[in-house]
Amino acid sequence: MPKHDGTGKRSTRPEPALREVLRVPGGDRVDLTAYDPSAIPAGPADKAAGLAATAALAPRLADLQERLYASSTAGDRRRVLLVLQGMDTSGKGGTVKHVIGQLNPSGCRIHAFKKPTREERSHPFLWRIMKALPGPGEIGIFDRSHYEDVLIARVRELVPRAQLDRRYEQINRFEASLAEEGVTVVKVFLHLSYEEQRERLLERLDNPEKHWKFNPGDIEERALWPAYREAYETALERCNSDEAPWYRVPANRKWYRNWAISKLLLEHLQALDPRYPPGDYDVDACRRRLLAT
Amino acid sequence: MPKHDGTGKRSTRPEPALREVLRVPGGDRVDLTAYDPSAIPAGPADKAAGLAATAALAPRLADLQERLYASSTAGDRRRVLLVLQGMDTSGKGGTVKHVIGQLNPSGCRIHAFKKPTREERSHPFLWRIMKALPGPGEIGIFDRSHYEDVLIARVRELVPRAQLDRRYEQINRFEASLAEEGVTVVKVFLHLSYEEQRERLLERLDNPEKHWKFNPGDIEERALWPAYREAYETALERCNSDEAPWYRVPANRKWYRNWAISKLLLEHLQALDPRYPPGDYDVDACRRRLLAT
Fold this sequence. Notes:
homodimer, alpha/beta, five-stranded parallel sheet, 12 helices, 11% strand, disordered N terminus
């Protein structure tokens, strides 16, 4: 939490980057039960402040997004890939709506990965992932991702264990190659509590306009909660490199989730520091030619 | 223009639907010089009112978009395809940013068509169009489209005249099939004046942060303005069916363009009247099962 002085104003001590606060530590055993999904580990302290802070980030995000896209038109091959993972109702869709909704949609390439089709299953699991990658200058958003292939695939034993075990290293190689090619990979685990999931599922049942979002299969998945937690812990442990780090975002509070992911995205875009490219033409000559028309 | 009484309030006389006002009349010879690209043929009378009116449409658009998407999860195959065409700087990108930016990005499938690749050229011209169509429940947005194949292709004589002439009917057949398959096709011609284009191109030259948007080739295209106008008139005349109508949106005023396209989209979504589907499960039983977890 940022320090406040008695007047309610922030102290001038610089805040640590949110990416440092939320980064899942590398090398260690990950124990998700050690973290509180309702926590506010940094940033705005309540909902009103959070909504205001998120709104204040929007123009900065939009500006950097435009610069990133502009830069790509001059050959810059960099791009961003935001990977959203989390249990049902953890807010993947809400993040797209509220965080990505702040950006220019023409520069966003969003893909929601569903149960693989027959054709997708006939290929290596990374085939469909590769096809959905963002282009230069774009911000890609994966609502679920290749991690499903070590999450539901592990919990439901969809592939033999030896094949599953190989996938972690395949993912690491894949993500290392992405990073080499100029893709900034930002992986977000939306950390929801078991109790909060129950509340959110009940809300869907209580509101007829949300019935379409509910599937009785969600209850069966929920029954596997401990197995999913273990599968997430393993993925966060085995696929967590400096080139493609995991961030754990407490997701019980929607306003905090939206602020935190906006801020993480902003910090990564700031680190890229994309610039508007100069024109490769004679501006004055073009102006004269235009004025003559 | 809507009638106003002396108090500045709208009269209670119902406004005609904007789709009727902006619809390019079928059957007739289209003469674009008969229309004023700065006109305000209906709706808010000035910029402040236009911005407010557009903002007021946003939640209604978002609500209908969600209903359309929800309905698709229960098998409704309907979808919307917004086709944006217009000369350079007419505001295709601005429309995506400001109009489509009001929607949930996860339900939008945006495609900007560039100069065809070698592979695209090796196929019939509608091949790449087909690949970019929105899925059920989605709103597709084409920034340029198959119409380039009768616009720049006509002006630059990229294909033999006989082949070009066949394309109009091919487009009509294609769009008729789309309509049969549940695609609501909304084609918008962004009508810009020759003078306003000069101003907008000069703005890009005057602002180093916009140099990347300018290409000296834009001046050569501009020199072909009369040929493009004729090509647009021909396309608007020969490919303008009730199933896939053209709307002419005066585009000199950006605020008006944004309002008009928002309103056109709203009217088409309202006509679809998508409904949240009921759940196909026992709600009470699911609630009991959940509460037991």
